[in-house]
Write the structure tokens for this entry.
Amino acid sequence: MSGAGCGKEYGKFVKKSVPFFGWGVLCGLWVTLKNFITSYFRKPDEGGIFTVQYPEECLPDFEASRNFPFLVYDETPEKPRCVACGICERECPVKCIHVLMAKDENGKPLRRPAAFDIDYSLCMNCGNCEEVCPFNSIFMDHEHKIAAYDRKDLMRPMQKLLKSNSYFHSIRPRDAEAIDRAIKEAAEKKKAAVPAKPAPSPEAPKS
Amino acid sequence: MIFDPVFIRLKALFLDLCARFFPEWVVMLASIVISAVVILVMGPVIMMYLTLLERKLLGRIQNRYGPNRVGIWGLLQPVADGIKMFIKEDIVPAHADKIIHLLAPVVTVVPSLMVFLVVPFGNGMTAVNLNIGILYFVAISSITTIPIFMGSWASRNKFSVLGGMRAAAQMISYEAPMTLAIVPVIMASQTLATATIVESQGGGFGMNWFIFTPWGLLGFIIYFFCAIAECNRPPFDLPEAESELIAGFHTEYSGMKFALFYMAEYMNAFTLSAIAVTLFLGGWQGPFLPSWIWFFGKTFLLVCVMIWFRGTFLRFRVDHLMGFAWKFLLPLSLINILIAGLWFLTPAIAAWALTAGLVVASFFVFVKLNKTFVPEKRTYVLAD
Amino acid sequence: MEILTLAAKIGAYALMTGVLLFALGVVALRNLFHSALCLAAALIGIAGLYLFFRADFLAAVQILLYVGAVMTVIIFAIMLTEHLSGKTTIQHNRQSLPAFLGIAALVTVIAKVILQTPWPVTQKALGAHTSVEGIGTALMTVYVFPFEVISVVLIAALIGAVIIAKRENPS
């Protein structure tokens, strides 16, 4: 940033002429003095102080950064996208996901989870669950300040894991839009294909 | 000038109060104890805040904020550091000479505190106006090698011993030009007492400082370089060069002992700057403001220059360091004594022309004589 | 005031005892480095005694020359000879008895001389507040010849040191 500029300037000073012994030393002093003074009013990208005072201010998260998984619902938390297929549970390398499929009174499985727990203390943020999910239901969150005093506090039940699609849009707009579009296209195709072939699995291509 | 003698009046008031209730000897003792306590408190406090100042300024030079978490602007950072130093484990190497290892940091602090005695902090604010003030300062600062030796030898560590050796060689070398740079000032003021030296720089709005003469300027520059070398600050920090010697003579120290070494170093930096101000920058002389503000302002300015040097310069190489002292500063300071003599013998304008010309001429002559030794270029067979 | 005088007296005797103890340490301690440190402490103590007798110039010069310069060189030499500094050496041999007798004789003679010399205390000497001016005037007037001779000796030593330290020319 400013270092390269200073170096160039210093070289300019020295190469031009060396009037007397100690000139280079004085040039060096001038460079540091200037840096000291400009640090008070220059902006970070102009060679000022670029320290970010962490707990108060944060650098913006990158869109693709990933921390811990969460579940997406579309309209209300009662209707999550998740169908409790259990693929993420199987694929999770550290086995931190536990899914239980809901059943009606006859014992017939419903296509939604009765329980969906993730142990954040085990999770290693690999993102495999996001990649394998065929229903675009589980995604990696940006929230990272989840420290707790007790291990139990890191167990996340379904109520805490469920977050709205608009939240997903707010943290990862590009991914969310692509997925929404894909879901809509799939739904239209399905509607068009209903007379010919009943009930294909709602598979949507991943973004 | 109502604020000028405020500290002296406070002390006199207190002593008056004492005299009403106690016999005479108590008053005398109290007068000594007050000065002693003020110095004993001021030294460490100055050291604590010099560390903060140094970290702040260095941070700004390197595009950082420096410590700003503990208290506003990090003002309580030195206190936090102190607490940390107190509760750290005190490690003594198994083969160390236990007693000397313990004594060395304690002894280190003593000379740096003793120098405070003769520093004139303001008009009439010298703790003891010794009539050998400057000689006392030179003598006391020459002791500082011995505790460094003690620490380095008692640690039984090769890095410590190397650091101690370097410290001794460097301090002996730089003491000679430093003392010789002081001589013209003694010639000009015809006294060794620090307070009197300051008084002789008064007149003309209190701006008749010695630095405004050719010999004074040269003397100040020589003195200041030597002062930086004396307190082992960069670019003369060879005795504690991190990249070569870990921490030099205090490699094997931790906790409060380590802090004591640091305390001595920073108090030395302060007192050497204070003496430089006394000798060349007119001490507490200056227009309009109270004397002690002038004194502390000038001293902290010099300390800031030291920090600025630290933020700018690279470490010397050992042979360059020695060469700089013996082949450049020492002859220059000898010539400076001669120039000062000429200054007093010749009338005003002629003296200016003559001495300024001599200063410049001798500077260039010594630069020419000190041509850097450039080893012949090495060629590598495989590189071609 | 009597209390202060008494305190000063006690302080002076304590200082003298300290100097004697450290001087004993120089000859009795088995570690060379400890001996050297004791010597430094004894020299500083002697400077303190000078200060006590109002010879502050002498005290400062004592510290500057003996503690600052000579002691540093001694310790430097000890540290450079590594196998000396680590070992403990016995500081006496079979000649200790004759040496003790000789020293005792010397001390007796010196003590006798000191006791027999009249030490004149002039009012002028007591009234002088600065010892520096008198020394300076004496060096530049009465004792100017010895002063110059000493400077010649020092120059000779300097030149000798440079010649010894100078690298031999290979050709």
Q: What stands out?
A: The CA atoms of residues 39 and 48 of chain A lie 5 Å apart.
